[in-house]
């Protein structure tokens, strides 16, 4: 907490300079193996965003690596090991969040050569196609598509892929999209940034389209606005990060474009 | 002289019935899992003089759920992650050696509910225990030298190990944890001599994987169809269906059967896994040599409340309706004490021991639990007062049985839960909708209870109320004293017949460990217990959770927000004796 405040003050002092020497680093909490978001080689779009923000704040990035599982915030931000998480839902309670810098959506993804072009949860083909969904399993709840399919009685043709994947492999969360490429499932319903990034990287290229409807009463929605988060008592840092995001808004969008992050309107 | 009660335990290997070797070689002491000691120097009359003989800090700050072991003149203690095994001179607490398995750091991020370990076991000169990162280790009890270390699974797939092994006929029986993470549950037998895997019995999937063969004779006809571990799931869902094995195993040497329960189904939301989801939230009876299943029974078919079926089973002989029956007694997470014929798997009675509104009873003709669908959590719907809450009326914390009183001493909780709303949650870069679960004290406002249960009369003989869930094990002795610990730092002795408080001692941290008693090298009776608050119930302290974050620890924090006022973290072994 003290570190965060000190950093924010220093960031004010250094605003407008490009000299990073001597400035306290921007301490970012990130997953070392979770592309397209982040990895230890700095290859994810959240790595790129962190670097962009650090440059804008006149400093450099220092990472605390921790797998994004239950307890991620507690072990990183909460433990004071770092000060900033890139990529949290806007208004998410465990952190103090910036305004969102993008909104993405769950998407259908299918093999390009099969041209399935599924766009609606009410597409009658979903009753016979084999569908892959991401599984969370926390508190008996799951990703919104898993609930939406269950509500339609679509059960027997649904296969689950853990959001965590096999963490010993380089891209744990790509398993659901590789399953589409391999033909294990006909269509996947996955969180947009994963589909956008892996569509051209799995063993056969994929196409994707946003899930519709975007909202399903009473409790399901398929688009989420994504922001950056700091500790709840670090409003000063949050404001500095917000300013940096605002000043570099077009660069932020360019980074998201470079990773083919599906966007669902304004954040 | 007190008259022996109608019930008696099958002590298995525990030695002559009229004596006691004063040792403690496995967390439940005997194969029947009684946690009863025949030592009687410490009695209901003199226990008030009990005082610390020595104490020993483990240097570890997470939840200490383990039972110490007493072997010869050495006490053995295994800590939570990083799973250090200490050998202590029972005279003084001096360290004879310590063994550090150095489990993978990443395992901490995988464990669901604090990085606990429920204890080690001694057999044939070896101490065996499990590490959080999926290894079973055998260590020479005299030297502390590692004899073998076997990898049993992969933390990268969400598996961890927290349970205490049981050694039966030179087989080390161990199981996995991680049902929330798409883990497929199993029980595995390792050869005690070599550490090689002898067999593995999955909880879900085809009969060949579940080790169900021609010898499988479940009591209820509905359980006799082949491959129920596949057909009671949507296609393929059994592959990641949970049913992990992180609790207790008992052994009946006469029937040559081991008994253990399986965890809840996962990681699907309940609507996406229609069917009974066998064999999750169930009990198996198996042959220890081969793992072959002899019978099985599901306590909570298609579980929707996170009612794992991993609790202890105590093997007893009881007079039920005029006939002597060889039974197992299981205080279950769903709130019922089950009395079952342990040869056949027949449910003889199933009686609520706590406030239950999620179900209406167990049909003894079919063995089926009758659910109350008004208390089913539904996404987007407010459902209040779901009792018991997800940890059940009783979680892993093991009971003790006294053959002198015929009572089962059950430490448990009194918690209900509200499912209030949906909220956005987020993990591994993926946002999703979570249920906002808040646990609350049940009727009466207290959160914990110790119940002395008469399994013959199927009713409580007495009950004690505690501020917090009683997350420690219980211990019963021939001195008619029952010991247990509380999360607000009291180690307590009560009268086995009446529950009358006899003695209490304030420890350094809250107690979630399992008390034991033994005869020391000097011939005196000692009582030992680990303090060190934590576990699922105590994660608010051991995991530094924010008391304002009511939904943390799957909603448990809401019921525990005042725990930090009563206990900080830190593990210490306490050893007590009479002056």
Number of strands of chain A: 14
Distance between the termini of chain B: 25 Å
Strand order of the largest sheet of chain B: 1-20-21-22-23
| Biggest pleated sheet of chain B | 5 strands, antiparallel
Query: How far apart are the termini of chain A?
Result: 28 Å
> Which pair of chains has the greatest number of interface residues, and how are they split between the two chains?
A-B, 62 and 56 residues
**Helix/strand structural class of chain A:** alpha/beta
Largest sheet of chain A: 10 strands, mixed
List the secondary-structure elements of chain A in sequence, H or E.
Answer: HEEEHEHEEEEHEHEHEEEEHH
Mean pLDDT of chain B: 93
Q: Please tally the β strands of chain B and state the result.
A: 39
Number of helices of chain A: 8
Strand content of chain A: 15-25%
* Cα-based radius of gyration of chain B, to the nearest Å: 22 Å
- In helices, the fraction of residues of chain A equals 25-40%
- Kindly report the oligomeric state of this protein: heterodimer
Uncertain spans of chain A, ≥5 residues at pLDDT below 50?
A: 1-20
Could you please describe the fold and organization of this structure?
The complex is a heterodimer of chains A (267) and B (579). By secondary structure, chain A is an alpha/beta fold. Helix content of chain A is 28%, strand content 24%. Chain A contains eight helices and 14 strands. Chain A has helices at residues 2-14, 45-56, 72-75, 144-151, 175-182, 192-198, 235-247, 249-258; strands at residues 26-30, 33-34, 38-39, 61-65, 84-89, 96-97, 102-111, 131-135, 158-162, 187-191, 206-210, 215-216, 220-221, 223-230. In chain A, strands 1, 4, 5, 6, 7, 8, 9, 10, 11 and 14 form a ten-stranded mixed β-sheet that branches. Chain A has a two-stranded antiparallel sheet with strand order 2-3. A two-stranded antiparallel ribbon of chain A has the order 12-13. In chain A, a hairpin with a 3-residue loop joins β2 (33-34) and β3. The longest helix of chain A is centred in the first third of the chain and has 13 residues, at 2-14. The relative contact order of chain A is 0.20. Chain B is mostly beta strands. In chain B, 4% of the residues lie in helices and 38% in strands. Chain B has a five-stranded antiparallel β-sheet, with no helix packed on it. In chain B, strands 2-33-34-35-36 form a five-stranded mixed β-sheet, with no helix packed on it. In chain B, strands 3-39-38-37 form a four-stranded antiparallel β-sheet, with no helix packed on it. The longest helix of chain B has 8 residues, at 535-542. Chain B is globular, with a radius of gyration of 22 Å. The chains are: A alpha/beta (267), B mainly beta (579). Chains A and B meet through α3, β5, α4, β9 and β13 of A and α1, β29 and β30 of B.
């Amino acid at each position: 907490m003290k570190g965060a405040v000190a950093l924010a003050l220093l960031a004010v002092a250094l605003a407008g300079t490009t000299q990073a020497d001597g400035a306290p680093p921007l301490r970012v909490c990130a997953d070392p193996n979770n592309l397209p978001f982040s990895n230890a080689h700095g290859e994810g779009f959240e790595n790129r965003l962190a670097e962009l923000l650090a440059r804008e704040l006149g400093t450099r990035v220092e990472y605390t690596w921790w797998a994004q599982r239950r307890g991620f915030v507690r072990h990183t931000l909460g433990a004071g090991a770092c000060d900033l998480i890139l990529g949290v839902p806007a208004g998410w309670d465990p952190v103090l969040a910036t305004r969102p810098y993008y909104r993405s959506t769950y998407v259908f993804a299918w093999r390009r050569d099969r041209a399935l072009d599924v766009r609606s949860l009410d597409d009658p083909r979903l009753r016979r196609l084999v569908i892959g969904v991401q599984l969370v399993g926390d508190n008996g709840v799951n990703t919104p598509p898993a609930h939406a399919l269950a509500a339609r009685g679509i059960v027997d043709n649904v296969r689950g892929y853990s959001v965590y994947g096999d963490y010993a492999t380089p891209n744990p969360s790509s398993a659901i999209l590789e399953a589409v490429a391999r033909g294990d499932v006909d269509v996947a319903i996955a969180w947009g940034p994963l589909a956008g990034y892996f569509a051209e990287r799995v063993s056969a290229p994929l196409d994707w389209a946003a899930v519709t409807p975007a909202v399903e009463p009473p409790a399901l929605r398929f688009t989420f606005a994504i922001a950056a988060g700091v500790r709840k008592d670090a409003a000063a840092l949050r404001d500095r990060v917000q300013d940096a995001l605002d000043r570099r808004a077009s660069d932020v969008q360019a980074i998201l474009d470079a990773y083919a992050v599906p966007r669902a309107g304004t954040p | 002289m007190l008259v022996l009660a109608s019930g008696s335990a099958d002590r298995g290997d525990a030695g002559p019935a009229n004596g006691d070797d004063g040792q403690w070689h496995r967390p439940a002491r005997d194969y029947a899992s009684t946690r009863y000691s025949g030592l009687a120097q410490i009695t209901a009359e003199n226990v008030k003089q009990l005082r610390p003989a020595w104490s020993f800090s483990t240097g570890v700050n997470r939840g200490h759920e383990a039972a110490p072991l007493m072997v010869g003149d050495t006490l053995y203690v295994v800590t939570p992650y990083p799973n250090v095994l200490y050998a202590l001179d029972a005279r003084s607490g001096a360290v004879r050696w310590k063994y550090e398995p150095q489990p993978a750091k990443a395992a901490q991020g995988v464990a669901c509910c604090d990085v606990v370990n429920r204890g080690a076991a001694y057999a044939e000169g070896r101490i065996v225990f499990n590490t959080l990162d999926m290894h079973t280790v055998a260590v020479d009890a005299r030297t502390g030298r590692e004899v073998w270390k076997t990898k049993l699974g992969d933390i990268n797939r969400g598996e961890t190990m927290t349970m205490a092994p049981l050694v039966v006929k030179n087989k080390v029986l161990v199981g996995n944890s991680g049902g929330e993470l798409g883990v497929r549950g199993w029980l595995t037998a390792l050869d005690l001599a070599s550490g090689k895997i002898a067999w593995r019995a999955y909880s879900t999937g085809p009969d060949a994987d579940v080790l169900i063969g021609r010898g499988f004779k479940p009591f209820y006809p509905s359980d006799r169809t082949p491959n129920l571990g596949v057909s009671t799931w949507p296609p393929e869902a059994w592959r990641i269906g949970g049913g992990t094995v992180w609790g207790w195993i008992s052994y009946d040497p006469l029937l040559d059967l081991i008994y253990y329960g399986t965890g809840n189904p996962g990681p699907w939301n309940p609507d996406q896994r229609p069917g009974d989801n066998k064999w999750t939230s169930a009990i198996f009876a198996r042959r220890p040599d081969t793992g072959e299943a002899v019978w099985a029974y599901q306590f909570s078919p298609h579980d929707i409340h996170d009612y794992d079926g991993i609790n202890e089973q105590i093997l007893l002989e009881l007079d039920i309706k005029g006939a002597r029956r060889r039974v197992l007694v299981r205080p279950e997470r769903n709130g019922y004490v089950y009395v079952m014929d342990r040869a056949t798997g027949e449910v003889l009675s199933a009686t609520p021991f706590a406030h239950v509104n999620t179900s209406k009873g167990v049909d003894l003709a079919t063995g089926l639990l009758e659910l109350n669908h008004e208390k089913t959590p539904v996404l987007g719907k407010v459902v209040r007062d779901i009792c018991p809450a997800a940890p059940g009326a009783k979680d892993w914390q093991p009971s003790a049985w006294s053959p002198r009183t015929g009572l089962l001493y059950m430490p448990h909780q009194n918690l209900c839960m509200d499912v209030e709303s949906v909220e956005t949650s987020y993990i591994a870069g993926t946002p999703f909708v979570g249920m906002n679960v808040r646990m609350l004290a049940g009727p009466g406002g207290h959160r914990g209870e110790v119940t002395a249960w008469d399994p013959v009369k199927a009713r409580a003989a007495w009950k004690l109320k505690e501020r917090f869930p009683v997350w420690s094990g219980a211990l019963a002795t021939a001195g008619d004293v029952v010991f247990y610990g509380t999360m607000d730092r009291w180690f307590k002795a009560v009268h086995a017949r009446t529950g009358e408080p006899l003695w209490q001692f304030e420890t350094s941290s809250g107690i979630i460990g399992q008390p034991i008693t033994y005869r020391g090298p000097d011939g005196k009776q000692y009582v030992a217990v680990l303090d060190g608050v934590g576990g699922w119930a105590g994660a608010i302290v051991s995991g530094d959770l924010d008391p304002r974050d009511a939904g943390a620890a799957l909603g448990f924090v809401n019921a525990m927000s005042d725990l930090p006022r009563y206990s900080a973290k830190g593990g210490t072994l306490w050893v007590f004796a009479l002056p």
